[in-house]
Amino acid sequence: MIGYSGAGKSTLIRMVNALETPTSGNVWVEEKDIGTLNQKELRNLRKGIGMIFQQFNLLESKTIYDNVAIALKLNGVSKKDMEKRVTELLDFVELSDKKYSYPGQLSGGQKQRVGIARALANNPSILLCDEATSALDPKTTDSILELLKKINEMLHITIVIITHEMNVIQKICNKVAVMDYGQVVETGSVIQVFSNPQSDIARRFVGNLIRDVIPEPLVESIRRETRNSRLLRIKLENTDSTEPLLWEINRRFEVETNILYSTINVIQGIVVGIMLVLFIGTDEEIEKAEQYILESKEEYREVTLP
Ligand SMILES: Nc1ncnc2c1ncn2[C@@H]1O[C@H](COP(=O)(O)OP(=O)(O)OP(=O)(O)O)[C@@H](O)[C@H]1O
Ligand SMILES: [Mg+2]
Question: What tens digit of pLDDT does each residue of 264-291 get?
């Protein structure tokens, strides 16, 4: 989930574990309408949902061991089982040697690892992360994202991430929802939304990553082009190069192609290339080239100058 400050991201995520109740509408979690649950059922729901935060929310006066053990203690787990589970969790987040340290002695990344271990204590099926990497430097962010990926793939836990960092979404998310003024304005697969954002707000977020606004000096030179031309935005998926397509087009048709802008991004392990190309030639030849792009199973759309 992505959106500017105050968009309602935290409010939405807090509805998933019923910390917040909507004034209208229903919230469905794992096929249950959670508005109909009684107190006991709500406790069970919350047991199955872990949460981590930007400020880690650790108890400073307790050891790392005790911080992780808290959730188990509250659920009446025996001392022996608790010891086994906490050891297992600290091992999983690679903090076995910090068992008896205090939060004050740990770095931000290590503190977040403790937060993650604590959130996993009761074997949840969902993990909610509210800006979990926002207080961390880029390298530490990457290591936490790696850990979240491992949690998702090895433990089969669904992870809901709130962030304002596009690279977090690009690295580990499959689906994205864009929020603005308390509403979800756009949803889709990360590839869909990143390569073809529909709402203004999504375009603004994606624009920082995939810039496809034509720089002003280029707009001027396109305007000066007196020959017949058409400006196309072509999206290539799963490509290792943008060249073969244009090379083929130049070889087959009577058109000149000028690449004005080109970018390659890896989203969810898939290479996505976007380029703005000015096609110069007769309408007939340009249309043949367009047809060829479609036959190559790539997407394109015509761009009109501002
Ligand atoms: N759909 C909504 N209906 C009513 N109030 C809302 C709605 N969405 C957000 N709000 C209110 O807007 C305020 C900001 O929401 P929230 O804290 O969820 O934003 P956020 O996106 O998490 O911001 P930040 O990035 O700063 O953490 C809160 O007071 C919240 O109650
Ligand atoms: Mg928030």
Answer: 888 777 788 888 899 999 999 999 999 9
Residue 294's CB: how many other CB atoms inside 10 A? 10
**126-130 and 49-53 strand pairing:** parallel
Ligand closest to Cα of 1 equals 1
Helix or strand holding residue 259 (H, E):
strand 256-267
Q: How far apart are the C-alpha atoms of 129 and 276, rounded to whole Å?
A: 37
Q: What is the SS3 assignment for 22?
A: coil
The whole-angstrom separation of Cα 126 and Cα 31 is 13
- H or E element at residue 50: strand 49-53
Atom of ligand 1 nearest to the CA of 20: 31
Nearest CA to ligand 1 atom 31: 11
Ligand 2 midpoint to CA 223 (Å): 45
Average pLDDT value for residue range 1-16: 93
Which H helix or E strand runs over 84? helix 79-92
Give the pLDDT of residue 112: 96
Question: How many CA within 13 A on the CB side of residue 110?
Answer: 15
- Given this model, what pLDDT does residue 16 score? 95
Which strand (E) or helix (H) includes residue 162?
strand 158-162
Short-list 147, 152, 146, 153, CA closest to 90? 147
| 10 CB near ligand 1 (under 6 Å) | yes
Hunting for tokens 């990143």 — which residue is that?
194
pLDDT digits (tens, 9 = 90+) for 45-74: 999 999 999 999 999 999 999 999 998 998
pLDDT at 201 over 80: yes
> Could you give the CA distance from residue 260 to residue 222 in angstroms, rounded to a whole number?
9
Residue 227 alpha carbon to ligand 2 centre in Å: 52
Q: Output the pTM of the full model.
A: 0.82
Q: Which residue has the higher pLDDT, 252 or 225?
A: 252
Using a 10 angstrom Cβ sphere, with 0-12 exposed, 13-18 middle and 19 or more buried, the burial of residue 238 is exposed
Helix (H, G, I), strand (E, B) or coil at 70: helix
